[in-house]
Sequence to fold (155 residues):
Amino acid sequence: MTRVDYYNDPNAPKANSIAVAVSAFIQDDEGRILMIRRTDNDLYSIPGGQLELGETLAEAAVREVREETGIECEVTGVIGLYSDPKHVIAYDDGEVRQEFSICFRASAISGDPQTSLESSEVIWVHPDDVNDLEVHQAIRLRINHGLEAGDPFFT
Fold:
């Protein structure tokens, strides 16, 4: 299924659903950020996805990182809570979701980067090189917050 993200776009379709999503900001010992190239919109992103019934938010983040990257991780903190109604995601089946995502800080434990049905590329990116990638501004916001120390961000 393909998707289009809209952010502060007056021509964006109106949201008709909301779903809990998680993402994980992971840096290695060199400070590089774990990123994927999404197969549904061809943009670079930090790993993440939707919460499934029967799991906690942290379990969902760990599962999504494993599924999308092949990396095992552990959640170590919260970066932010993102629920901006000006960010909507339109899917080709007619669903248009309002953003509702919890971004966690996590540490890689083991594993080697590998692609999946949801990721066509898995890379470790130096923070200075993120601007060279095509990344949606809502994900850039999470990355910027992940690079900052401080209290969790929320909207």
